[in-house]
Amino acid sequence: MxxxxxxxxxxxxxxEEGDYQSNPLLTPQGGRATYGSVTTPQVDLIANTAxxxxxxxxxxxxxxxxxxxxxxxxxxxxxxxxxxxxxxxxKLGGSFDYDTTRTSEETxxxxxxxxxxxxxxxxxxxxxxxxxxxxxxSIAASYSGAKYSNTQLFTxxxxxxxxxxxxxxxxxxxxxxxxxxxxxxxxxSGFGVxxxxxxxxxxxxxxxxxxxxLDVALGELHRSSHYDPIGGIPISGASVWDTTYSVSAxxxxxxxxxxxxxxxxxxxxxxxxxxVISKFTLSGSHFVTTRLELDLAATYQFxxxxxxxxxxxxxxxxxxxxxxxxxxxxxNTLSFAVNGNFRRQQAEGIGNGAVSVYDPAQSxxxxxxxxxxxxxKDM
Length: 379
Known about the structure:
About 0% of the residues lie in helices and about 70% in strands. The chain contains 1 helix and 21 strands. The radius of gyration is 22 Å and the shape is globular. It has an 18-stranded antiparallel beta barrel. By secondary structure, the chain is an all-beta fold. It has one domain (about 10-379): Maltoporin, Chain A, CATH 2.40.170. It has one helix spanning about 100-105, and strands spanning about 10-20, 35-50, 50-65, 70-85, 90-100, 115-130, 135-150, 155-170, 175-185, 195-205, 210-230, 235, 240-250, 255-270, 275-285, 290-305, 315-330, 335-350, 355, 360-370, 375-379.
C-alpha cells in the first residue's frame, strides 16, 4: 500500500429508529409483537491518491426491545482497497459482522430465531491485467465463514470461491465478460456436508443512454454434494446441472431513480445445506420536492431444491418483503423518515422423500427514523 495515501476524508452519521413489528420471527401461529429502538452510529474513512483508494466503514447497532432476546449490541465493518496501475490493478474487499440471527437469517432460511449470536467474516482479493486498451484478464477469489453460538439450530460453515475471467470492451458503453467459477461450501459444526460448484458464465453490460444501464449474465453450474456418514450409515450425495442468471436494469433521472433485477444462483444456508435461490427485487426513489422523497423496496425470492440438499432440514420456500418509505430532508444534514413494511413467508420441510408444508406466516411493521449526517471532514 503506498505510504502517501491522502487526503483522508471522514464521513460520520448517527440515526435513531423506533421500530414496531407484529410478528418479527414470522411464526405461523402469529408470535409476539415487538417494539423498541435501534441506535446506529457510523463512520466511513476514505483515502485517495491518483492511483489508490481505500474505504473503511464501521457501524454499530444498539438494539433495545421489549423482549430481552431481541436486544443486542451489534457491529458491522467493510473494507475496500483498489490500487490501479498502467497495466495491473489490485483489489481487496473484506467484511465483518457481529450480530444475531434476528437480522442475519431474516431472508436466508426458514429458521426464524432471535438471540443466537452470529459472526461472519469475508476476504475477497482480485487482480486484473490489461492486455490491451480493450482486453482485460482477471482472477478473483473469496473466502467467507459464519459461526453461531447455538450449533443445535444453526451450522457453522465456510465458502471458498475462485473465478478467472476475461473482459472485452467494445466501446465506451458496451462490454462483455466471460468467467469461470469454482466454489466449495463446507460445514464446520455438526455432521460434515460439502458442496462443490463448477461452471462458467457470460455477461453483457451496456450503458444504453445517459439514464439507462443494463446488465445481463447467464451461466451453467455443475453442483455436487457429499455427506459424511451418520452413525456409520452412509448418506448418498448427488450431482446436478443448474442454470444461473442475473438481469439488472437501472434508471437514473433528475427526480426518479430505480433498479429492477432478477437472479438465480446457489446460496449457502446455515442449516447444513445450499439452495438455488431465485430472487426478484425492485427499488426506487422519487423526489416530490428537493426535500420530500418517496422510496420503495420490494423483494420476492424462492428456493429450489434439486436433490442435493441431503437429510431432513427445515427450509424456506418463498419470502416476500415490501417496504415503502417517506423521507423528509429538513436540512442537508438532518432528515426524518417513516417506513412501513410487510413480510410474508411460506416454509417447507424437505427430506427423506417427504415434504411438510407449514402455514404461511406474515408480519407488518412501522419504523420512525431521525438521521444526522454532518458534512464530511478532510484531514
